[in-house]
Amino acid sequence: MLKLYTNYRSVSTHRVRIALNHKGVPYEPVYVDSDAGEHLKMEYLWLNPQGLVPALVVDQNLIITQSFAILEYLDERYPERPLLPEDVRQRAKIRSFAQVAVADMNPLNIVRVFRYMRDQMQVPFDARRKWFEHWAHKGFAAMEWMLAQEPEQDFAFGMSPTLADVCLVPQVHNGLATGLDLSDYTNLRRVYRSCLSLSAFQAAAPETQSDTLKS
Ligand SMILES: N[C@@H](CCC(=O)N[C@@H](CS)C(=O)NCC(=O)O)C(=O)O
Fold first, then answer.
1. What cellular component terms from Gene Ontology apply here (predicted)?
2. Pocket around ligand 1: residues whose beta carbon is below 6 Å from it?
3. Which among 34, 81, 173, 209 counts the fewest CB atoms within 10 Å?
């Protein structure tokens, strides 16, 4: 069975849980407590030398890191309920949209960035919060604009979820959980609501994970 190294707070891992649930692929979660520094221990660095979650262990010869690489692997390996459509132009749009979250929003606003600012640069809390809000809104505003160009449908790019929705939902969840005002992003909120009506998204939510319930 697939093993997913995960933790409830990780936006990147949230994406992977959604995709696994959507595909109906069973997996064993292995919880990595980043507050306790487990992600930086040698035992975990063998799996992901970046010291970041997620890591997906497929078998002893294949460990996949980087959530987007994992998402694409899952979509190719389990083609039922595809997360990318046939149409090559639509695929390009979906990837562009998803990468706003994956490549540009999330990396600027993760724990190691804030720890570095706090511990190595002595950046005070208010300035760190300003940084967080600035880069989050830059990304959300671009995504909102991209969706505004599309016909209004249940999901970001059509009538079923794609990688766009898989990458949007964890980012919006994180924004809401950290007190960002997302009221201006009407299209993003509409798509978020549609996604949350699906069990694949509900079962992937941070608040339903076993490591959340323990802490
Ligand atoms: N580009 C990587 C990013 C992974 C990443 O940033 N993981 C975060 C959680 S979302 C992490 O492990 N953070 C630990 C830290 O910042 O110390 C991916 O998409 O998998």
1. cytoplasm
2. 10-12, 34, 39, 52-54, 66-68, 102, 110-112
3. 81
Task: Kindly compute the dihedral angle of the four CA atoms of residues 61, 63, 64, 66, in this order, to the nearest 10 degrees.
Answer: -140
Q: Whose CA is nearest to atom 5 of ligand 1?
A: 52
In 13-133, DSSP assigns E strands to: 27-31, 55-59, 62-65
pLDDT digits (tens, 9 = 90+) for 66-104: 999 999 999 999 999 999 999 999 999 999 999 999 999
**Per-residue pLDDT at 147 exceeds 60:** yes
Q: What CA–CA distance (Å, rounded) separates 6 from 4?
A: 6
Residue 36 lies in a domain: yes
112 lies in the same domain as 141:
yes
Same domain, 94 and 192: yes
CATH of the domain at 107: 1.20.1050.10
